[in-house]
Amino acid sequence: MLFAWSFGVIGLLIGSFLNVVIYRLPRGESIAVPGSHCPACGHFLRPWELIPLLSFAGLRGRCRQCGAKISRRYPLVELGMGLLFFYTAWRASVVSLNLFSDLAFLSLLVALSFIDLDTMRLPDSLVVPLFLLGLVRALFLPVQPAFGYSVLGAVAAGGGFWLIARFYPRGMGFGDVKLAAALGAYLGFPKVFLAVFLASVGGSLWGGLMLALRKKSLKQQIPFGPYLALGAILTLYWGSLFMQRYVNVVGH
Ligand SMILES: [Zn+2]
User: Fold this and answer.
1) Which tens digit of pLDDT belongs to each residue from 29-73?
2) For residue 220, how far is its CA from the centre of ligand 1 (angstroms)?
3) The Prepilin peptidase A24 N-terminal domain covers which part of the protein (predicted)?
4) CA 36 – ligand 1 centroid, Å
């Protein structure tokens, strides 16, 4: 348990780092320099102001110098990453390259989701590493999917999304095509289609709800990246279980 808790703490710190990535990467700013500062007044954060969750609570969600409000999303991303890291390590129960691979997968997906929400874009500088991570993991680690199924997953999911983007360009951007291919490489064939299915269900339900509440109109685009990421995370955790049950049901 101590093992999982340590990873939970690492997750909080990674979440804090992802907040920087989510803010700076779409603006073309350096991730490393300058250090974290208030976007309103430029006040550089002291070390204690960088402590995940606690600093937000200590500052009561405001900049210490100018009083500008700090978005609630910062502590939420930190907490979310802490929980994801804790749960993933707890499931894995031993340190392995595969655990680190899964944690990198989750981190990239969370960063991509929020950047897509903010900007409607999925930057190549995150999607390409995600894609390579999937291929390299399948090639070198004794895990599912095997390399052939990783390539097949990338081609099938990427190809399917490419067709949709080509013939229904309003519904989907090319960034989604590349993300689908990357998820295919990581989750493999046929599991990636479970992720796509869950993403479509999630997207339709949420889109329908927003439409019903008149928060969005039919003309407004909704970013699909966060749904793909959510589908992929659920599939990473429970895809095998689901597939087993499903195949069993079909088999009997
Ligand atoms: Zn400030």
Assistant:
1) 998 888 899 989 999 999 898 899 999 999 999 999 999 999 999
2) 33
3) 9-91
4) 11
Residues 6+ apart with CB under 8 A from 23: 39
If DSSP codes are grouped into helix, strand and coil, which group holds residue 69?
strand
Yes or no: say if 178 and 131 are a contact pair by the CB < 8 Å rule: yes
Closest-CA residue to 36 (of 27, 26, 23)? 23
Whole-number Å distance, alpha carbon 37 to ligand 1 midpoint, is 8
CA distance 208 to 57: 35
Please state, in angstroms and rounded to a whole number, the distance separating the CA atoms of residues 111 and 151: 24
79, 10 contact by CB (below 8 A):
no
| Of 187 and 48, the one with more pLDDT | 187
Contacts of 166 (CB under 8 A, 6+ apart): none
Q: What pLDDT score was predicted for residue 221?
A: 72
62 SS3 class:
strand
DSSP 224-246: SHHHHHHHHHHHHHHHHHHHHHH
* Residue position matching structure tokens 């990674």: 14
Distance in Å, CA 67 to ligand 1 centroid: 6
What pLDDT is attached to residue 158?
Answer: 97
141 within 8 A of 156, measured Cβ to Cβ: no
